Amino acid sequence: MAVDDECKLKFMELKAKRSFRFIVFKIEEKAMQITVDRAGQPDESYDDFTACLPADECRYAVFDFDFVTDENCQKSKIFFIAWSPDTAKVRSKMLYASSKDRFKRELDGIQVELQATDPSEMSLDIVKGRALI
């Protein structure tokens, strides 16, 4: 599975310059390549992010999550989210599952990984809980 250079470039901008709040990636099955589906602006919210994930198609995503620790420190963590809804095609789910680890290695700087098959598995509360670990 090839990874389009734009994926790495946009991720570096998210990580270093915080140019984006999130990036959604998709596999172009005909080209067998991972490409950028959508990049969210810094002022977009977690709700904006979850709203752009298709209900019946798999996606990979990274989300730059800002939070405050129990000690009142402002921090952020970069989440890698593997979105694989139950309603997605079996072939698509297999393709995303088999390509995930290699793709994740291309994105240096991911701190937390989440896998979700339904929106409740990636609720804001779950993300906050994982960020504080």
From TrEMBL:
Entry keyword set: Actin-binding
Where does the UniProt annotation place the signal sequence?
A: none
| PROSITE patterns, per the entry | ADF_H
A Pfam family name for this chain?
A: Cofilin_ADF
Q: Does the keyword Amino-acid biosynthesis apply?
A: no
Q: Name one GO cellular component term.
A: actin cytoskeleton
Entry's Gene3D superfamilies? Severin (3.40.20.10)
Q: List the InterPro entries hit by this protein, alphabetically.
A: ADF-H, ADF-H/Gelsolin-like_dom_sf, ADF/Cofilin
Molecular-function annotations in GO: actin binding
Tell whether Repeat is among the UniProt keywords.
no
Q: Which GO terms describe its biological process?
A: actin filament depolymerization
* Domain called ADF-H: residue spans: 1-132
Q: Which PANTHER family match?
A: COFILIN-RELATED
Briefly, what is this protein's role? Actin-depolymerizing protein. Severs actin filaments (F-actin) and binds to actin monomers.
Q: Which family does it belong to?
A: Belongs to the actin-binding proteins ADF family.
Its name, as the record gives it, is Actin-depolymerizing factor
Species source reads Apostasia shenzhenica
